[in-house]
TrEMBL record:
PROSITE patterns: VOC. It comes from the Bacteria. Gene3D superfamilies: 2,3-Dihydroxybiphenyl 1,2-Dioxygenase, domain 1 (3.10.180.10). Residues 6-119, 137-249 form the VOC domain. This is VOC family protein. It holds the Pfam family Glyoxalase. InterPro entries: Glyas_Bleomycin-R_OHBP_Dase, Glyas_Fos-R_dOase_dom, VOC_core.
Length: 285
């Protein structure tokens, strides 16, 4: 079993690094933590970075999860290799570019590039964006899955994720107490489906709604409330068509032995209890 602790960052390729930076700062509300040749890093909480845009194709993506020790990382590489997932061990330069002490990269069964990382840097300094979006941190990622049942087994049997709830066959999975850190959505190809940042309060959702509208940013779902995590949410489109989500009030699961994953409809009522309907391809039946 590969023990993962949390989702830690996403890397997104873009052909318009300056445009992506403008969006991340002025619309999403992140803080630039560092600029390097061909890469811009963003903070959304105390961690050194939780998002990195790199110059390249929009298909150059990765989602990173923290692993507990160097021995666990070696064991994970052996397990993945044994299961037929070719593993690349990060070079010193690649580790430096990710602010981690070590990592391995492989593709999940759908072909999503995944990184398991050791000791990602934190700063002890809280984040503050120039735009007050009320962000409290990067919280979860939605991954496209060409076979959610198969991929659920990868995350829960090969790794230590636990299913909190399912919407249709799409599992929302946790590593700790937060309702979900990774969710899988049926789609015909792999890719990061959405990136979630938690915000402090309902006010932040509505303040952002006005800001997005004023800046002609397509709002694709919400405001609404997820019946699964009980979080209030808002989805919108960013650079290269990436979906971003703000949400507030995600529930925590503390009664671990008693929790039973629940089944929700893969239909608007399973996504939103206020009646909002998504304009997002992966959320349509
Ligand atoms: C709309 C997607 C499928 C979705 C559904 C539920 C939650 C949640 O319970 O918080 C999400 O975060 C989602 O992105
Ligand atoms: Fe989400």
């Amino acid at each position: 079993m590969i023990d993962l602790m949390d989702v830690v960052y996403c890397r997104l390729g873009t052909r318009d690094l300056a445009g992506a930076e403008w969006f991340a700062v002025n619309i999403l509300g992140l803080e630039v933590s560092e600029r390097r040749r061909g890469a811009v890093y963003f903070k959304s909480d105390a961690r050194a970075h939780t998002l990195c845009y790199v110059e390249g194709g929009a298909d150059q993506q990765a989602t990173a999860f923290e692993i507990g020790s160097a021995a666990d990382l070696d064991r994970a590489a052996a397990v993945l290799d044994g299961l037929g997932h070719p593993v690349h061990a990060g070079t010193a330069d690649e580790c430096d570019a990710r602010h981690v002490r070590g990592f391995i990269r492989f593709n999940d069964p759908s072909g999503n590039p995944i990184e398991f990382v050791l000791r990602p840097e934190t700063t002890g300094r809280r984040y503050h964006g120039t735009r007050d979006a009320g962000i409290t941190g990067f919280s979860h990622v939605g991954l496209c899955s060409t076979d959610p049942a198969r991929d659920e087994l990868f995350w829960t049997e090969v790794c230590n994720a636990r299913v909190s709830d399912r919407i249709g066959d799409a599992p929302l999975m946790r590593f700790g107490t937060i309702h979900h850190s990774v969710a899988l959505f049926p789609f015909h190809q792999p890719g990061i489906q959405h990136i979630n940042h938690q915000v402090q309060a309902t006010d932040d959702i509505h303040r952002s709604l006005a800001h997005l509208r004023a800046n002609q940013v397509p709002v694709t779902f919400g405001p609404g409330r997820h019946p699964t995590s009980s979080a209030q949410f808002l989805y919108f489109t960013g650079p290269d068509g990436m979906t971003f989500e703000y949400s507030t009030g995600v529930c925590e699961i503390h009664d671990e032995p008693l929790w039973r994953d629940r089944q929700f409809h893969f239909a608007p009522k399973g996504f939103c209890q206020w009646g909002s309907a998504p304009k997002i391809a992966a959320f349509k039946d």
